[in-house]
Amino acid sequence: MGEERRGDPTLSIRTVNAPSKAGWLVVHGGTMMELRVPVTEVPLCIGKDPDAQLRLEDPHVSARHAEVVRTDSGFAITDLDSRNGTLVDGVSIRSAVLQPGATITVGTTRIRFESRGQAPVAGAFEEREATRFGRAIGQTPAMRQLFGVLHRIAPTDLSVCVLGETGTGKDVIARAIHDGSLRKDKPFVVLDCGAVASNLIESQIFGHVRGAFTGAVSDRAGAFEEADGGTVFLDEIGELALDLQPKLLRVLETGIVVRVGTTSEHVVSVRVIAATNRDLQAEVRAGRFREDLWFRLSAAVVTLPPLRDRRQDLTDLATSFVQAIRPDLGIGVDAMAILENHDWPGNVRELKNVIEGAVAVCEGSELSPRDFVLFHRRMRQPTIDRLPLAGKSLDSIERSAIRQSLAHFEGNKTKAAEALGIAPSTLYAKIKKYEL
Question: Looking at residues 206-234, what average pLDDT do you find?
Answer without folding.
Answer: 82
